[in-house]
Amino acid sequence: MEAVLWIVLGIALAIAEAFTATFLIIFFAAGALAAAGVAALGAPLLVQVITFALVSGVSVGALRPIIMRHAKPASETGETPFGVEAIEGSHGLVLEEVDADRGMIKLDGELWQARSFDGNEKYLPGERVRVIKVKGATAIVWRDDLPNI
Questions:
Q1: At residue 37, does pLDDT exceed 90?
Q2: Is the Cβ–Cβ distance between 73 and 85 less than 8 Å?
Q3: For residue 28, what are the contacts with CB-CB under 8 A and spacing of at least 6?
Q4: From CA 138, how far away is CA 78, in angstroms rounded?
Q5: CA distances from 85 to 17, 112, 117 (A)
Q6: pLDDT per position as a tens digit, 52-85
Q7: 26-63 as b/e, with b when 16 or more CB fall inside 10 Å?
Q8: What's 22's DSSP letter?
Q9: Where are its TM segments located (predicted)?
Q10: How far apart are CA 59 and CA 25, in angstroms?
């Protein structure tokens, strides 16, 4: 019965990790699953708790720094950006007027919702803009005063 409780705790912690971006809770889920393993072998509760604490602590101390080092954005590591990171800094063409509340641009043949970086600015159809950052599925843009770089 104790093994089932540890498994339920491990699954609950793994699900909780899915709603965070910390890469911390998942290590406690691993500790709970390790405790479930020793509980299934018939270990007393004290040994289960010690196993939970040791596996959680060691994995947080040893694995989390490695994962966080590899989770840095490409701009910090010098690698080639991909995904949303690759879109930031690219040029777009305004298709529908872009302001603080609405707008549409074309980026590399794809249509994107866009908002003005400065809520006071408006960009008219035909103007070129540069993507400053991406929030969800919306490109935050600014007037493209720079040459094609």
A1: yes
A2: yes
A3: 13, 52, 56
A4: 25
A5: 23, 15, 17
A6: 999 999 999 998 888 877 776 655 666 666 667 7
A7: bbbbbbbbbbbbbbeeebeeeebeebbeebbeebbeee
A8: S
A9: 44-63
A10: 11
* Tokens 């490109």 belong to residue: 139
Higher pLDDT, residue 135 or 82: 135
Which residues lie closer than 8 Å to 2 by C-beta, 6 or more apart? 39, 45, 48
The structure tokens 């910390």 sit at: 22
Flag whether pLDDT at 142 surpasses 80.
Answer: yes
> Is pLDDT larger for residue 82 or for residue 41?
41
Q: Specify burial of residue 79 (Cβ count, 10 A radius: 0-12, 13-18, 19+).
A: exposed
Across all residues in the chain, what is the average pLDDT? Answer: 88
Q: At what angle do helices 2-18 and 25-40 cross, to 10 degrees?
A: 160
Domains of the chain: 1-71 (no CATH), 90-143 (2.40.50.140)
35: closest CA among 22, 46, 21?
46
